[in-house]
Amino acid sequence: MALPEDLEKELEATAQEVLGKLRSHQLFQSGWDTAAFIIFLIFLGTVLLLLLLVCIHCCCSGCCSHRTSRSRKVSPQQEHRRGVDNLGLEP
User: Where is this region: Disordered (predicted)?
Assistant: First the structure.
């Protein structure tokens, strides 16, 4: 079990290490660090783009009142039908 003093010293050492890297302008030790950071940024950008698209879809679905193919009238028999009829199963 870590004592609060040990935890404080560990956090201070980590903070000093990060600040030292910032001062020396050497944030990444190797090419793998750079690649991992780029992959993380691509992932973050993709998530933000998807969130933006969801927000646009939610906000504009009510204001765009054009009719789609889904909104046309369907008979009650065809309402629950999906897929393609398999005529091989017909007697």
Answer: 66-91
d(CA 39, CA 47): 12
List the one residue out of 14, 16, 34, 32 whose CA is nearest residue 24.
16
Cα dist from 53 to 13, 19, 36, whole Å: 42, 37, 26
Residue that the structure tokens 């040990």 belong to: 6
pLDDT (tens digit per residue) in 60-71: 877 665 555 455
Answer yes or no: pTM beyond 0.85.
Answer: no
Q: DSSP string spanning 15-48?
A: HHHHHHHHHHT---SSHHHHHHHHHHHHHHHHHH
